[in-house]
Design a protein that fits this description.
The protein is α/β, with parallel strands linked by helices. It has 7 helices and 7 strands; from the N terminus they run H-E-E-H-E-H-E-E-E-H-E-H-H-H.
Length: 265
């Protein structure tokens, strides 16, 4: 007996036998739902970026964020989409795979009738500036794919697992905090913060609720997070490379000292 499958198209609300719903309108509804998911997670502290699990006696918090990314493209979702994706992936109980991240796939990417019916999924949105429309995507874990051999994984971006990125200033803006968190997410490295900073940034983010309900401002905020994250990621990669080069030079010096100390007489 063949396994059930989902027959669904991203970005379209057209249903067989029914009048098509304006996909821009449905995309907007999904967008507003994601804003609500984000703000609720900020308010109740369940946003992974604000996790206080493992805080030590001094309030120091150390974590290693798990990236949520596209299986076929390899890219990490960015901005508020990454924050929402981490929250929703955690709610669905999705665990990192062998790549160390949670990889998701859309119906189209999986191929026709290649998603099991009833599989867990959630939606993310993106803004099409040229068409002035909001696109939306249903994302599924790879466990929902009936025949994985039909899908080729995209190349994952390089990580910097030995780096450490910090956000420990209570006076920092939400943009800068989330940029540091996204940089650590992309790098696959340690992220360091503290309770005081988390609480301060949470309050500031709550104050942005009305602002983020605007699609334009939401996307501007996400773009600013991504830009800041990329700059921090580049700096972390350069710093790590410099440390490795210094370590290699010191090793070579020790080897040279050892060679010079050998008595061959």
């Amino acid at each position: 007996m063949a396994e059930g499958n989902v027959n669904q198209t991203e970005g379209s609300a057209k249903a067989e036998g029914k009048k098509a719903i304006d996909p821009n309108r449905l995309g907007y509804v999904i967008f507003r739902g994601n804003v609500k998911t984000f703000m609720n997670a900020v308010k109740d502290g369940s946003l992974p970026a604000f996790s206080m699990d493992g805080a030590d006696a001094s309030g120091k918090i150390t974590m290693r964020p798990v990236a949520v990314r596209s299986f076929t493209k390899g890219q990490v979702f960015t901005g508020v989409n990454q924050l929402v994706a981490q929250k929703k992936a955690a709610e669905l109980g999705l665990e990192p795979d062998a790549s160390g991240s949670v990889r998701l796939i859309t119906y189209r990417q999986a191929g026709e009738k290649n998603i099991r019916k009833g599989s867990p999924n959630f939606e993310l949105t993106s803004y099409d500036k040229e068409k002035n429309s909001i696109n939306y995507y249903h994302l599924y874990p790879m466990s929902a794919v009936i025949d994985p051999d039909k899908v080729s994984p995209g190349q994952a971006p390089e990580t910097v697992p030995d780096a450490k990125i910090s956000a420990t200033d209570p006076n920092m803006s939400p943009k800068d905090y989330f940029a540091a968190y996204e940089a650590a997410t992309k790098a696959g490295c340690q992220f360091e913060t503290n309770k005081k900073t988390v609480e301060a940034v949470r309050e500031k983010t709550i104050g942005m609720e009305k602002e983020l309900s605007s699609n334009f401002k939401y996307n501007s905020f996400s773009a600013a997070i991504e830009s800041g994250a990329n700059n921090l990621l580049l700096s972390a990669a350069e710093a790590t490379k410099s440390m490795e080069q210094t370590k290699d030079r010191n090793i070579q010096k020790e080897i040279q000292k050892s060679d010079n100390a050998i008595d061959i007489g």
